[in-house]
Design brief:
The chain is α+β, with helices and mostly antiparallel strands and 176 residues long. The protein has helices spanning 2-16, 19-26, 30-44, 60-64, 123-132, 144-153, 162-171; strands at residues 53-58, 74-78, 92-98, 101-108, 112-115.
């Protein structure tokens, strides 16, 4: 019986994109869905749901890009939403991707950049956001400590300083 419930919760979380959406669909507390999926992961000995972090990998264009080449060929970063862009117009250049999202960063021309991950968010910044958004509906307030523990366990403590690199490359010296 528990196995069927756990699989149903996993299915709904995957189908709807978040445990919160699954909890609303199933009329079950988010914490219950989270615990059941965690139990299923433990039983199977593997992660089934990726948390709020992603392993970002650079494309060949990203490795040659003056801004993203500073980041290394792959790095960890946090996401706070379901990534939406999966296909770009022909004039955009994909710079980075992850397993779950084919477009994590792109460039249009030489000075217009966009990311789907949070280039500004390190572990301290995430801790602040968790506290600020505790009652905003992203997760159950009593799950705040568990969300922070998962963030600490992710191994992401800081992301490459892409914002500072952008300022250095374009704002300070006016490169085009």
């Amino acid at each position: 019986m528990h196995g069927e419930i756990r699989l149903r919760y996993l299915y709904e979380a995957a189908r709807l994109g978040t445990m919160r959406a699954a909890s609303e669909e199933l009329n079950v507390a988010t914490s219950s869905i989270s615990r059941q999926i965690a139990a299923l992961e433990k039983d199977l000995g593997m992660r089934l749901i990726e948390g709020g972090r992603r392993k970002i990998k650079l494309t060949e264009a990203g490795e040659l890009d003056p801004l993203f080449s500073r980041a290394g060929s792959q790095f960890g970063a946090y996401v706070g939403h379901k990534e939406a862009i999966s296909k770009l117009s022909a004039h955009a250049v994909i710079l980075a991707y992850s397993e779950s999202c084919p477009v994590q960063a792109f460039r249009v021309g030489t000075r217009v950049y966009a990311t789907q991950f949070h280039p500004e968010l390190d572990l301290d910044g995430l801790a602040t956001r968790i506290e600020v958004y505790k009652y905003a509906g992203y997760f159950e307030p009593e799950e705040a400590d568990a969300v922070m523990a998962a963030a600490r366990a992710s191994g992401v403590t800081e992301v490459p300083n892409i914002l500072e690199g952008f300022v250095e490359l374009f704002a300070r010296n006016g490169n085009s």
